[in-house]
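Form 7-S
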Amino acid sequence: MAIRASGIRQPSIWASVVSDDAVALREWLLAIGFTEDLMIPGEQGGLIHHCQLDWPEGGRVLLSSTGERATPCRPGTSSLHVVTSDPDAVLERTRAIGATVVHSIVDRSDYPSRDFTVEDPDGNHWTFATFAG
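Output:
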C-alpha cells in the first residue's frame, strides 16, 4: 500500500485526537470541511494508526484509533478551537451530519468573534470561530 502526503506544510500547532471509532470521526471531520493529507491504516482492520486532516484555512488535526499508539490522550477529552472566516457555513455542514450543538452560533460582545461549539461522536468539543487571537 502506498502512503501519500500532499506535501503542504502547515505552520501551526497540530492537535492530536484519539478516538474509539476513528474511522467514523474521520468521516465526521471530512463532512465538516477538513481534508485528508495522510492516512495510515491501523494494524487491525477498521482502525487508524495515524491520519492527518487539514483545515482549509490553516491548521491540522492528527487522528488515531484508541490503542494504536502510545499516548496519554483519551477519547472525548479534547476541546479544539478552529478558526474560520465563515462559521455559519461550517454550522450548516455540522447540522447536515446531525452533530450535537453544544452552544449555538453567537456574536461575542466581549471579544470580536462569531462562533459556535459542537460535540463530535467521541464527546470532544469543537469550537468554530472567527476569532484568531
